[in-house]
């Protein structure tokens, strides 16, 4: 059982309305996606500034720290406080509260913070430490195969899901879906943000806050299947990574190494199964139940 974290509830509207001129010369109201800087502090140390819609700022901060392996457990955190007046989110560790020593004040954290990589793509992400560190220790569950029928359910429900993208565009979305029980394919969590990096981190934060395991889940992203996306999915313990987009060579190589079942180009009834075929059951398979 996770201890209670002091959390602000500081979400802000994801869209704003402006006036544009259409092809007929008419002034029309248009909803556009918000974009706000949010500087992240861990125990009073500034780490980076994220550009975000601002819909899930607390979960975004927690998930970013989780996926960068700067915190090992949600129980390490005492408080997450967002202040839009200063455009900042302050994360306070239990260690700082109890001992006065910042969580980052050790050799391991200092080594990670000294090595920083800015990743490419929409809504650039920043990665601290070695991307490939500890990958050999990740063991993904084989207990819950994914059927073609459930994949189609996920694709259909994500397509029909109400979203900021349909309203205003200019965002990426991520969904966490069930792969067990009577609700296979159901969307459990759905987050959109300026970049896919933020959306996946917010899902990771919400999973920790809600105590959700990744073993029996499916992760869907509208973005490309890059090395960073694969690594974050694996760190969250999720064996299935699905996208309507394509993949990169490094994304494919790491997914193969980790044994992730990765599926891309999901549109209508079309998909491409790139890796992890041992966990996937097609409709014409004798294994299908």
UniProtKB/TrEMBL annotation:
Its main location: cytoplasm. Pfam families: FdhD-NarQ. The active site is at residue 122. It comes from the Bacteria. The keyword Cytoplasm applies. It is found in: Cytoplasm. Signal peptide: none annotated. The keyword Protein biosynthesis does not apply. Keywords: Cytoplasm, Molybdenum cofactor biosynthesis. Belongs to the FdhD family. Required for formate dehydrogenase (FDH) activity. Acts as a sulfur carrier protein that transfers sulfur from IscS to the molybdenum cofactor prior to its insertion into FDH. This is Sulfur carrier protein FdhD. It comes from Limnobacter humi.
């Amino acid at each position: 059982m996770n201890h209670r974290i002091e959390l602000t509830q500081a979400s802000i509207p994801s869209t704003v309305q402006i006036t544009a001129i259409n092809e007929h010369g008419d002034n029309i109201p248009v909803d556009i996606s918000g974009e706000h800087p949010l500087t992240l502090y861990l125990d009073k140390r500034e780490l980076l500034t994220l550009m975000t819609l601002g819909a899930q700022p607390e979960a975004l901060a927690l998930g970013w720290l989780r996926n960068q392996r700067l915190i090992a457990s949600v129980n390490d955190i005492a408080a997450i406080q967002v202040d839009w007046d200063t455009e900042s989110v302050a994360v306070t560790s239990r260690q700082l509260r109890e001992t006065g020593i910042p969580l980052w004040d050790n050799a391991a954290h200092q080594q990670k913070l000294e090595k920083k990589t800015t990743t490419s793509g929409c809504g650039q992400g920043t990665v601290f430490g070695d991307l490939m560190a500890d990958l050999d220790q990740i063991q993904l569950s084989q207990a819950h195969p994914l059927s073609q029928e459930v994949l189609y359910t996920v694709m259909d429900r994500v397509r029909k899901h109400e979203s900021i993208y349909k309203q205003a565009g200019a965002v990426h979305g991520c969904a966490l879906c069930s792969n067990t029980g009577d609700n296979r394919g159901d969307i459990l969590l759905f987050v959109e943000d300026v970049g896919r990096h933020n959306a996946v981190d917010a899902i990771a934060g919400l999973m920790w806050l809600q105590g959700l395991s990744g073993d029996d889940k499916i992760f869907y992203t509208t973005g490309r299947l890059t090395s960073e996306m694969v690594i974050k999915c694996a760190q969250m313990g999720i064996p299935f990574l699905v996208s309507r987009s394509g993949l990169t060579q490094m994304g494919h190589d790491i997914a193969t190494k980790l044994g992730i079942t990765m599926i891309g180009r999901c549109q209508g009834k079309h998909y491409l199964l790139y890796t992890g075929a041992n966990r996937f059951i097609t409709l014409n398979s004798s294994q299908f139940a």
